[in-house]
Design brief:
Elements: E1 5-8, E2 14-18, E3 36-38, E4 51-57, E5 67-76, H1 83-90, H2 93-123, H3 135-138, E6 141-144, H4 161-166, H5 168-172, E7 178-181, E8 185-187, E9 196-202, H6 209-221, E10 225-230, H7 240-246, E11 258-259, E12 275-278, E13 283-286, H8 301-316, E14 321-325, H9 364-380, E15 385-389, E16 410-412, H10 426-439, E17 446-448, H11 457-460, H12 466-475, E18 479-483, H13 531-534, H14 541-552, H15 556-560, E19 562-568, E20 572-578, E21 584-590, E22 596-598, E23 610-616, E24 625-626, E25 630-632, E26 636-642
Parallel strand pairs: 6-7, 6-18, 7-10, 10-14, 14-15, 15-16, 17-18
Antiparallel strand pairs: 1-2, 2-5, 3-4, 4-5, 8-9, 11-13, 12-13, 19-20, 20-21, 21-26, 22-25, 23-24, 23-26
Length: about 650
């Protein structure tokens, strides 16, 4: 440690002579003595009069290692405020208000920025990805006629709700999330014919309300949904509403369409007058179907309110939606005007198609009613669905969201494939599909090959084309609807209605439908085409249907992808489904009687040559395929994946 010495400066401060420790020479040395200056007072503190001096090494080459420190050249500098001065400002009212203002301003600004960020997230346009599909858009819908599906515990030869519940595992195994169930409402005649006597009760033939709620509860546990079918247009004459209306009992007097005299030329679907006389009321009532099926008056607000209550009741019992049949007849011309002759008719007077029916079908008010019913339904259950199975026009529109201005979610077209002949061609098939897609452009499309009122696919066409048609319909844009048994290739029965043969569960008494041996109107091919026989084979109709539904249909390309189709050489119908970032899908179907080799690479965009087989008809070889030379046997189909090429 070097020595330190003090010497008195001219300003009363001291000159400190110090050793080298902690002191560095400076380049500025006015005196040339090598000293560096530092402000020091006599008491060893910084000069409090705000004067400063440079600290210099006066001599850098002193012999004893000491350094002379000179304090001079006082300069002004700011040394900060002391505690007492700060406290004066801290207690000043002006600065107190300023601090509170800045504090509040900071938090208001922070909250405003937070609210702005949240608003931007909510209101900013969303990414251009596809909207999530609803449950009734994700998988096929499976249509079940409860009376012919499976006989439960009663073994009376009539299918029931208990029997249906016992087969939920089978239906779920098809990759199905929704069941369209035929009417189970209390009826005085066939359940599917609209002779309803009580819209709030289950018909004793098929079970009880307790059986129904057990069914819906079991379905919800399996992640499944039920759509209940019924006809709102008319009731049975035995319905308490009509009985009271005939007697003019309030409030039921105007629940049906009454007039004092037969007012016009309207005819029923059966070609007879649409008016029938009541001996009790001494007036005429409207029936667009049979005389014992009187039309309800949907211009009466009380009738609409009744159906709101009915729908709410069944929603609370577990249904996820409704299918309303024959809705085009809900509202008629309020002035009972004369109907006009159909200028395109090819039938004679007295037949239904002789008239236009512009006064009795598809009136704009019909869809006002449907909109109101749908809105009330969504108020109870936001994910419920309203389907119509009728000859409706596009006036009401189809919807994919909860837009309350629309009338329904699903429009079924029972006649969609009715124009196809037994020996249809790829051109015929393309025309049918393209026409329906154009008619429903911008809306969700629904596809159904068969229904309860037409011959089954295997009988109407050929068992050989069942797989091809199922593949085409399953993977088209939209939602397929499958009539029970069509996944097996079931044929018609020899009874009526032909399509509603009992479900073929196995090759045994009554096809496994019931232990009751009196069942006779069975599917004509139930011995070969039944669940038990087809269960273990991936190449069976059932195995192919399951692969299509559970493997191919669940891909993003099928769910959201673009569609492009072509017909090759009038023989092969083909289409692709493409979704960016996902494998492409190619569906090909040769309905002809001839084998063919198709070059699809040139006619379909983005096609790569190498194809990977996903599912096929039994007689298609399991090997590598090329789109430029795709070989297909007669009556065969194949579904392939490929890596899309950049356009």
């Amino acid at each position: 440690m070097s020595d330190e010495r003090e010497t008195e400066g001219v300003d009363g401060s001291t000159r400190l002579l110090a050793g080298e420790m902690g002191v560095r020479p400076t380049n500025s040395d006015p005196e040339g003595d090598g000293a560096e200056e530092k402000l020091v007072t006599e008491d060893g503190k910084l000069n409090s009069n705000r004067e400063t001096s440079e600290v210099k090494f006066i001599s850098a080459d002193s012999q004893n290692g000491d350094a002379k420190i000179d304090i001079e050249n006082v300069k002004h500098t700011f040394a900060g405020m002391g505690k007492d001065e700060l406290m004066k400002f801290a207690n000043d009212p002006f600065w107190i208000r300023m601090r509170w203002f800045l504090f509040i301003f900071f938090w208001v600004l922070w909250i405003a920025m937070l609210v702005g960020a949240v608003a931007i997230i909510i209101l900013a346009p969303k990414c251009a990805g596809p909207a999530p599909l609803k449950w009734w858009e994700e998988s096929p819908l499976y249509e079940v006629n409860v009376r012919t599906f499976v006989d439960g515990e009663k073994e009376d030869g009539i299918g029931d709700l208990v029997g249906l519940k016992s087969k939920l595992d089978y239906i779920k195994g098809l990759g199905v999330k929704g069941i369209v169930l035929s009417s189970v409402l209390q009826s005085s005649h066939k359940l599917e014919d609209g002779y309803v006597e009580n819209f709030a009760e289950v018909d004793p033939l098929v079970g009880t309300v307790h059986d129904f709620t057990n069914l819906t509860a079991a379905m919800k546990e399996e992640g499944m949904h039920l759509i209940l079918d019924f006809i709102p247009n008319h009731t049975s004459k035995k319905h308490p509403w009509f009985v009271a209306s005939e007697k003019k009992e309030s409030p039921f007097t105007d629940y049906y369409v009454w007039t004092q005299k037969e007012p016009n030329n309207w005819v029923s679907l059966y070609g007879e007058s649409a008016w029938a006389y009541s001996e009790i009321r001494k007036e005429y009532y409207l029936h667009q179907f049979k005389p014992d099926q009187p039309d309800l008056n949907f211009r009466n607000r009380e009738v609409i309110n009744e159906f709101k209550k009915i729908m709410k009741l069944w929603l609370e019992r577990g249904v996820s939606g409704f299918q309303m049949s024959n809705v085009e007849f809900l509202v008629e011309d309020k002035d009972f005007g004369e109907d006009f002759v159909n200028p395109h008719t090819v039938v004679t007077l007295g037949q239904y198609d002789f008239l236009q029916h512009s006064k009795t079908a598809n009136l704009p008010e019909t869809y006002d009613v449907l909109r109101e019913l749908r809105e009330s339904m969504l108020n109870v259950s936001s994910d419920s669905v309203l389907a119509v199975s009728s000859n409706v026009t596009r006036y009401g529109g189809l919807v994919r969201d909860n837009n309350m201005t629309h009338a329904f979610d699903i429009m079924r077209n029972a006649d969609l494939f009715s124009s196809l002949k037994h020996e249809f061609t790829a051109v015929n098939l393309n025309h049918t599909i393209y026409g329906w897609m154009r008619a429903t452009e911008g809306y969700r499309t629904f596809w159904e090959l068969g229904n309860a009122y037409r011959s089954r696919v295997a009988s109407r066409f050929s068992p050989e084309v069942v797989d091809g048609l199922n593949a085409v319909v399953m993977l088209l844009p939209g939602t397929p609807i499958t009539l029970y048994g069509d996944e097996l290739g079931m044929s018609d029965s020899d009874g009526e209605p032909r399509a509603l043969a009992p479900m073929a569960w196995r090759n045994s008494t009554a096809a496994g439908f019931s232990a009751n041996e009196s069942i006779s109107a069975l599917s004509l091919n139930f011995q070969e085409k039944n669940v038990e026989t087809e269960e273990s084979s991936e190449d069976s109709h059932l195995g192919i249907y399951r692969t299509l539904s559970k493997k191919a249909r669940t891909s993003r390309s099928i769910m959201y992808g673009k569609f492009e189709s072509t017909v090759y050489n009038d023989t092969v119908y083909a289409y692709t489904r493409l979704k960016s970032g996902n494998p492409g899908y190619l569906v090909v179907f040769n309905p002809s009687d001839y084998e063919t080799t198709a070059n699809l690479k040139e006619s379909l965009k983005s096609m790569s040559d190498d194809l990977t087989l996903v599912v096929k008809s039994p007689h298609v070889e399991d090997r590598k395929y090329q789109a430029s030379s795709l070989y297909l046997p007669a009556k065969s189909m194949g579904v392939f994946t490929f890596v899309p090429q950049q356009e």
